[in-house]
Design goal:
With 197 residues, this protein is an alpha+beta fold. It has two domains: 68 residues; 121 residues, no CATH class. The protein is built from five helices and five strands. The longest helix has 31 residues. It is rod-shaped and about 105 Å long. The two termini are 37 Å apart.
Length: 197
């Protein structure tokens, strides 16, 4: 699309550069009885042709900028994954009250995707990131392959989940009585490296 716009703009510029005498000769060869065109008509035609070419070139560059903003570069993804891993490293989170860890992979994959997008910077897209969980993942030790639309590079984010050093959380019960539910609390150690997991 961009190439077509540039070709059309070049054609318009070429048309605007044709000399007036040559155009008059062409007209006369096709229609000898046609009235002669004044020089002002050629000036106006050149202004219109160069203006249209300028608008075409501007539109092509705008289109290229939109396409560039819609895709991740390898450098953007590398920086975003590194920063996301650094921000997630050392964080704590509550687990499931019933001890059901079946949704851990999906939850942490979503968290990684959101952190990568958040750390992408101003030029990076706000979507297109995928953190694929490895088949061998366990809640205590998991790997995620992070990829993004437009980037050729892939990164491995390794997550180790351990019981929190601050201990589990026991919310208060009703009317000042001790609570009966304990919510597990976990600490996360997160690292990243280049390449798939």
């Amino acid at each position: 699309m961009v190439v077509l716009i540039f070709v059309l703009a070049a054609g318009l510029v070429a048309m605007g550069c044709v000399k007036a005498d040559r155009v008059r000769r062409w007209r006369e060869s096709f229609n000898p009885s046609a009235p002669e065109l004044p020089d002002s008509a050629f000036v106006a035609a050149r202004v219109v042709l160069f203006g249209m070419a300028g608008i075409g070139i501007y539109s092509a560059f705008q289109f290229m900028a939109v396409v560039a903003d819609a895709e991740w570069s390898d450098d953007e993804l590398s920086s975003a994954v590194s920063q996301a891993a650094a921000e997630l490293d050392g964080t704590s989170r509550f687990g499931d009250i019933f001890g059901d860890d079946s949704g851990f992979d999906q939850e942490f994959a979503k968290m990684i995707e959101e952190e990568v997008v958040e750390n992408g910077g101003g030029g990076a897209p706000q979507s297109g990131v995928d953190a694929g969980a490895a088949a061998s993942n366990k809640p205590s030790d998991a790997d995620y392959t992070v990829q993004a639309a437009g980037a050729d590079a892939a990164f491995c984010v390794h997550v180790v989940r351990t019981p929190s050093k601050d201990g589990d959380y026991k919310p208060p019960g009703i009317a000042g009585n001790p609570g009966t539910v304990t919510v597990p609390n976990y600490d996360f150690a997160v690292t990243s490296r280049k390449g798939e997991c």
